[in-house]
Structures are given as C-alpha cells and as structure tokens.
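Entry type: protein chain
Record version: 2
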Amino acid sequence: MIVYQNSKKQFLDDVFSNDIENIIHDFYRKKLQKRSQKNEIRSWRESMHYMDRILRDDAIPDNCGVSIEYQIPQTGKRIDFILSGQNADGEDQVILVELKQWSEAKLTGQDGLVSTRFEHGQALTSHPAYQAWSYATLLQGFNQTIYDENIGLIPCAYLHNYPPDDVILNPFYQGYIDKAPVFLKYDAKKLQDFIKQHVKYGDTTDILYRIDSGKIKPSKALADSLAAMLKGQQEFVLIDEQKVVYETALALVKGHQSEKQILIVEGGPGTGKSVVAINLLVALTKLGLLAQYVSKNAAPRAVYEAKLSGTLRATAIRNLFKGSGVYIDVLPDTFDALIIDEAHRLNAQGGLYGNQGENQIKELIRSSKTSIFFIDEDQRVTLKDIGDKQEIYKWGNLAGAKIIEVELSSQFRCNGSDGYLAWLDQVLDIRETANDNIAELAYDFRVLDSPTSLRELILEKNKVNNKARMVAGYCWNWISKKDPSVYDIDMPAYDFRIRWNLTTDGSLWIISPESVNEIGCIHTCQGLEVDYIGVVIGPDLIIRDGEVITDASKRAKSDKSTNHYKSYLAKQPESGPDFIDSIIKNTYRALMTRGMKGCYIFCTDAETNAYFKEKLSDFRRSE
C-alpha cells in the first residue's frame, strides 16, 4: 500500500506549497485509517524539503514516480521514499531511500546495529544501510511482480543532518554499506549523481502501481525453512526490532561471564518471536554453544521435529527441542542458553498430574547461564498459565540474575496489519484501541452465516498449499476420542458435523493433509500459523447489547483450560473473574490471529454473529 504517490514534478509542487507534511498526512489518514504522530509529521516536513533539493535537477526526469511511505506487503514496515523510472538500457528501476534525521550515533560491535540518542537515552537500532537493504530484500521476497518482471531495486540511506564521522561509515558496517550506500549531510550532490546513475528516463510504465497491485508471493513458513537454516542458508532477513533482539541475545550468550542473565522479549501475535527464537537456536548451535528451544505447547515442537526428519538424527532433533517440564533435576548452568518460546504458557508444575517440580520458570533460570523468554501476556489461555513478567522477575531476582527487557512490534502475520490486531482487541473488549473498523486493510476477514459455508471456504483455500484450517473454542466435549464413529460438534440446523482433531495426528494436526476435514482448538495451533484460519466462536463468548460476555461454564468438560474455575474464583474473589474473562477473550484473539492472509468466523450465537457483521459494515476487503 502506498500512502503518497505522484510524479516528481507534482511532488516538487507539493513541497513548494509549503504544506507537504499535511498533504502526506491526509493520504496517510485515508489509506491507513489512523492519524500519524506529531514527530512523524515533523519528519515529513523536514525530510521532504531535503529530497526536494535532491530532485531539483533537470537530468532527473519530471515524470519519474515518487512514492512516500510504501508499506511492504505482509509486514507493518514502510519505506520512506521511493523514486521510480528507467535506466539507460530502458530497464525498470526503483530507488528505495531510507531517510534519517539523526545527527549522531555510536558503534556497538554488534552486527548491523548502532546506538542512537533518543529522548530517554541510548537505544540500539539497525544501521541505516542494514535497514535499507533488509527492506529491499523483504520487498523482493514478497512481491511476485518484482521477481517476474525483473524490476531493479536499489536501496540507499540519506542522513541529511549527519556530519561525517567514524561511526556510520565505519568499516565494521561496510558489508551492508556496499549493498545500500549511505549519504550524509554534505552528500547531496553524491546522492543526486547516484540517482542519475540509475534513473535516466521517467516512469512510463506505472512501476509502483504494478508493484502495489501485483501478486503477493507466498510467505516463508518457519517450519518449512528450518532444515535449510540448519544447513547455513539465510531464510529470513531480520528487520528492525527483530535484528536488535537477535543481536542482543547473541551478545549476551557469547559474552557471558559469571553473572546469570535473563532476556525478556515481549511481542504480540505475528511479530516474529518464533522466527527470532529459531534463528538464535541455529546460530548458537553453530557456535558450539549448548542451547535448546523450549516450549510448553507440544504442537510447535512436533511440527519442527517433523520438518527436520531425515535431515538430522532423531537424537539430535530431540536435543534441540524440549518441553518446559524436563528441567526439574538439571544441574545449575548446564546450558549456555535456553530459548523459551511462548513463555506465557509456562506452568508452575508439570507432569501428567501437574505435580512435578516446584516452578518451571525457576527451573529454567537455574538450568541455564542465559534464559531468553519470548512472551505475550495477552496469550495466556488457561488458569495454569503463569508466564508473565512479574513471575520472571521474581525468580530472576532470587537467582541474582541481570534482567534485560526488549520488545518486538513489527507485524508479520495478518498481512502485516497492526490495524487488524488493534481492531480485534477493540471488538473483543480486550483493550480500548479506537480502531472501530478495518476498512482498507489488505486482510481477508469475513463473517459467515453458517459453519457449513465456513468449512466450504476453508476447503477451497486449502487446495492451494494445504495451509487453511478450522478451529473452534473448546465448547464441545471430545467424545470421538473414545468412539471415533461419533461427531464432537453437531449442528443439525446447519447440517454440519465435524470431529475434533484425531489423536493419530497428535501435535502434528496443523500440517497433516487430512486434518482440514477436522477442527482444532487452541491447544493444537497456538504458536503456529496457516495462511487462512476459520474460527467457530462458541457459546463461551457472546455479545449482548454491544457488551462482550464470557462464560466459562460453557466450556467443555474435557477442556482443562478452565478446570476448577469455581474453586479458583472462591480463592481469588477479586482478581479471579477478570482473569477468567481474559482467558476466554485471549483464546479467541489467539485463534483469530493464526491466519497470515485471512480469518473467517462463524458465531454459534446469532446476536454475536450480527455484532461482528455490524463491525464490518464499512469493511471493503482488499483482495
């Protein structure tokens, strides 16, 4: 999606009007359905005046295309400035310019990262050359038009306030500067010549329009890419906060002295927590350090292990991926690092009867020199989930650990739409976000009139690459577990019957080819993703007069998420109701964010279905 698009000539006129920042902001509000921050509006005003000076050269054709704030497909990231045209050979060229208003930075010694001064002190961030290169790589990886039509992408960075020093152009970053040249305060002529070198003729073929409306390439699936990563192939380009988190964690583990260390990584659905976690596992393993990937939920581990079958020995695979309850008797500091994904799902005790060990967080911290917790407190979905920052700090402080917090916010699921997640939080009454609709978002969200039509849509989408599945709130007993001939969910009014996922697939349900004919729950899909998800919202969440009401009594008896909720309420009369309410809302939030490209829902309660339809009344889906 492009926020602002025009010819070079019109761009210069818009800057000359002395209102360029408001012109961009008007497009921004229209296209993205939100207001920009004041500091971003100020940056448009300043940076666009600098780009105006660069482009005021008659050798740069007036009919070149200028695009501002182009959102990279399937991410929440935007490219600052794009110039499109043709080179001397008549080939389509796109120059991507990352604009920075920095005036100083510091070396870090960490690959692709610098330290910059912000309002509240120093902060690690991507080097501008790395950032420009990574954005170009992402765009090339997501857009079929660029690949098929051989459109040239030329990234660079322009730091128009930054005087020359020994930091930004330091040889340490030369590998990235070679891929994306950096132009500083006194380099306006150099940038001008760079543009003229690559663009001689104007954009007569609507290059950016073709890119923006082009077919999106399938996203890389983490599980599918794991074997290649272990062989040394770079499958994922980490950007911005992902790169910062990765390098921070790597430096902590490699530089460990005697002090125990904890890194807490916060991030919502689709921000790349698992991608960073797996990249860390691969990197540390290659360095000869003893590291393991840990998750309480068996489903992600099972999928990763299945994808590695035939690539590594079974014992090697088992030594890489572990459940969270196996560290009870492990000696202190046995591991260089434990990488705990989905840490919000950790329990106090494990084992078949939930009575083994003392506390999983304590045991994980004790067992490793460095513990890396990837966490999203809004994805706690059972009464036993104890994984929150307060609990990690409690045991970390008792262990005398150094604790660092970092955050992931870039969105890589739900077509990169932060707006969809904010809208979801609003309509599920998880938090107030002011996102009342998802108009203009390139995410396929639909409310179906029956579970039958929902299933038909998922079956159709699944024909493409076996990446569409149905899930539901756990509101129906799992009776087919003992009698495979019966159906768990039976809605005669819709002529709809379906079984919960079979035990034969176990945790591999989400990738089993035949499982599209079954329905999963939160326990078989959390931590994993598909292209399209179909969600049946059961009677545990209903809407009455616009109010979201949850009811744990409507959960199935076989669901352990809210087992003994009445006794829990008796013990926690003040905080208990809100926590149980959040568990049910978080469950549906998690289910409704499993789809990278689309989410389709059907609510068993008619008023609830009508509520979601009303919230979508202004929704114009962008195919």
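Comment: The chain is about 35% helix and 20% strand.
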